[in-house]
């Protein structure tokens, strides 16, 4: 089958961010744009001859078109085998699972996660390495370098693959295996959790639950696992059909965007348990009856109860959390006598620690939790983890969380996002903070004394790589913190994220409203960063 070599020239800004390259669909649809990025990725990887690739995405608009192009470019670049999800579907955790299971060289995951989809929405691509995890910065920066000097790409002239047809097809000399996107993942989940116990809990007690797939990729996974395998009543999964525009929604599982689920869980007839996932299935939100579990607490609670789950019954080796994630997990690690790591934002920084077996569980405040079973965060895995714990302990979500706080104290935690801030304003704000850093330590601010103020830099203990400028940290005596950073996943302007945390172990003070408990720190954050003055914003766009 003939292969064409097409002349091209570089596009600016093909720089992968926190989680791959994310741009508006209209940007990706420019002639050669996608091809340039794919070829730059292959060039950065070097020899692709006879290698195996996994390809799949979250089903958003442009997914299948992009996959057909990628398959033809993979064939032209020498790959011998590609595993692709039926109809182009693979959730991010399922892609990680498939890469590991079939020992692929790597995978291309097509997603912009929770960013809105559709013709006017966003698209994204990231490369995951053979361990199933997002490529580390050493690779993403190479991709970027290649993208800045690309002159040609290679593409096969073969016909499109029938992505709906399960089984083997050929594209030139490359074999394409169209696989069921759910089955390998569902098998893996059954090897981790006590399915019979969860099934009994769901089907024979009066426990009730709801899962909101938000018209994104987790629908088929949740229906198979929760309804078909675990016996939850039909209809437990809502918005379960993945749509190319996510039903015009914003599949970001938080109190603002998962409105339908939140309304139900806070109603008088609320079910006992509620959960939602995001566009590509790697995030999760956990709710109880009229109760919200912060992702940071969720990580700590999973860690504290890990031994109740078959896969972790012998204990965990360590915990890693991203820097802005609350320190609740640190207290659990200390009690368990295991290591605890603080990494920059983004799952790519957990891979080395997981590969070296230094940690078993990882988590981020942004509704992401995961473990060594794959190398991505995993929404449904977290849901099953919670269900497994609840089934063993026969407790409600609120009881479990309250008990945890009584034992470990509570890290009150909130994140305030200011979306769509003009980039220059956002950069000026960070610069203004940066300039203050040397003067802050030992200063008394309100009732607190600053113990450190820096721009977080991470030294990876496994490969000695260093990631700098990962966010402004202001830490106070006693552990309270304010953190500022700019998002690396947006496609319009800048998003300022302000993370605020305060520790409380007075048993009488464990059930205060979060925004109230953190009010003075929120005020202080605004004063330090001059948010209102520099951006004109008087309130955040999203509070989680
Ligand atoms: C955000 C989150 C980060 C997460 C990343 C990808 O990044 O803060 O914790 O890893 O999204 O998640 P940023 O740079 O915008 O803060 V996902 O679900 O998009 O793969
Ligand atoms: Co995601």
Can you walk through the features of this model?
- This protein is an alpha/beta fold and 544 residues long.
- It has 3 domains: 3-180, 3-Layer(aba) Sandwich (Alpha-D-Glucose-1,6-Bisphosphate, Chain A, domain 3); 185-408, Alpha-D-Glucose-1,6-Bisphosphate, Chain A, domain 3, CATH 3.40.120; 410-543, TATA-Binding Protein (2-Layer Sandwich), CATH 3.30.310.
- Strands 2-6-5-3-4-9-8 form a 7-stranded mixed β-sheet, sandwiched between helices. Strands 20-21-24-25-26-19-27 form a 7-stranded antiparallel β-sheet.
- The longest helix has 15 residues, at 379-393.
- Keywords: Isomerase, Magnesium, Metal-binding, Phosphoprotein.
- Its cofactor is Mg(2+).
- Its EC number is 5.4.2.2.
Total DSSP helices: 18
What share of residues are in beta strands? 25-35%
Quickly name the level 1 CATH class of the largest domain.
Answer: Alpha Beta
Q: Order of strands across the biggest sheet? A: 2-6-5-3-4-9-8
Radius of gyration: 23 Å
The quaternary state of the protein chains shown equals: single chain
**Domain module count:** 3
Q: Major sheet, described briefly? A: 7 strands, mixed
Gap from first CA to last CA:
53 Å
Stretches where pLDDT is under 50 for at least 5 consecutive residues are: none
